[in-house]
Write a structure and sequence with these properties.
Length: about 80
Amino acid sequence: MDREDIIKTINSLLIQEFEIEEKKISPGAHLKDDLGLESLDFVDIAVIIKKEFGITLKGEEVTSLKTMGNLYDYIYDHIKQK
């Protein structure tokens, strides 16, 4: 899976699961400030990432992800390591 596939998958999931407008989603979009995600949403995102990509996010890792770009990079880096 390449980075573009990851971006499309994550964006699609955020649009479906959290009803985020597609135009708001960009690599520089801040997860909390720009997309309005809250603490419990991050738990849901971690579950989605585990289900879709087989990657387990730890609590401190989730809180370190500030932007969509950080999230894409995190997933991409972990997939490359497999």
